[in-house]
Amino acid sequence: MPAGDALELAHPQCQAWVNGTEGGFYHLGNALLSLGYMGGSGPFGALYIFSFLLLAFLCQALGGWASGCGTGTLAWGVLQVALCVLQLVHVLLRLWWEVVDACGNCVLSLDEEEAYALEGTTPIDRLSFLLSGRIRVSMEGQFLHYIFPFQFLDSPEWESLRSTEEGSFQVTLTAETDCRYVSWQRPKLQALLGQDRYLARLFSVMLGSDIADKLYSLNQRLYVKSGIRLDIRLPGMHHALASSEERDSEQDQDGVQDPDPTHQPDPMRSPLPDDSSNHDEGSSQPLGHTPSGTLPPHSQRGRAPLAPTDTPEL
């Protein structure tokens, strides 16, 4: 008897289909398996695929264990779950070593009352992440807020400059206690983020959340009569301040000054001049011209600034 005929005769014939359905774990496992194979390429795609495969094989293993007679299904499910866990660990470690290699594979430290950055002196050329300790942020001797572990030290400065620009810190960062942190040099980290889109998105989300936390902690402390004082380290403030300084310097060069600096108009008087003053001043100034100093700076500009440039003092 041929081997094929013997195998066909040995296999039991299906007399009738089972009316019942498979358990819920079976259907859930197959659904997760289908979703898992929809992942893309790259590290992010690998994390997506193996995460869904892990859950799918776990459901199949639980289904085999619940059936009571699915020993083989249980064994294969456990084996496939272990393989997916190893793959996830491998992908995460590869991403981790890329980030660690960019910071030089070393952890830096700050002693108590040691300065990490000085206002107007320290250049913005790195990005640091605090591991332990507490950092005090101040400006012109005034306390702003604290930086706690697992927060970036200089996320606002990192976001305030473009990749080709240079700048310096607008605040002073001092260690309140003994601190430990990791630091990435700006060119090296930018090169890494340019190569890995997943890491770039991850850093973007973390930096955005960190800046929001700093803004909330700052706004809870700093209030003035005109409203809430904005953090000068926020993205866009550096460019707004620089543009304001350029406009002011251009106005000084054009000679737009008050002819009599000691003369200050009476705030209680009507803004409309009387006839005598109108005849005296009409020959020296054109119609509609307002002397410098009578209006706030934002009213003298041709357009509204993108961000507040006249920050009130504490």
Helix content: 40-55%
Task: Calculate the mean pLDDT score and round it.
Answer: 70
Please tell me the CATH architecture of the domain at 108-224 by its name: Sandwich
Largest sheet: 4 strands, antiparallel
Comma- or semicolon-separated keywords:
three-stranded antiparallel beta sheet; 9 strands; 10 helices; four-stranded antiparallel beta sheet; 314 residues; disordered C terminus; Jelly Rolls; alpha+beta
Tell me about this structure:
The protein has 314 residues and is an alpha+beta fold. Among the domains are: 23-102; 108-224, Jelly Rolls (Sandwich), CATH 2.60.120.10. The protein contains ten helices and nine strands. The protein has helices at residues 3-10, 24-36, 42-67, 71-102, 155-160, 186-195, 197-219, 237-254, 275-282, 297-300; strands at 108-110, 115-117, 126-132, 135-139, 142-147, 172-175, 179-185, 223-224, 227-228. The strands form three sheets. It has a four-stranded antiparallel beta sheet with strand order 2-6-4-5. Strands 1-7-3 form a three-stranded antiparallel beta sheet. Strands 8-9 form a two-stranded antiparallel ribbon. Strand 4 (135-139) and strand 5 form a beta hairpin. It is elongated. The model is unreliable at 235-241 and 256-314 (pLDDT under 50).
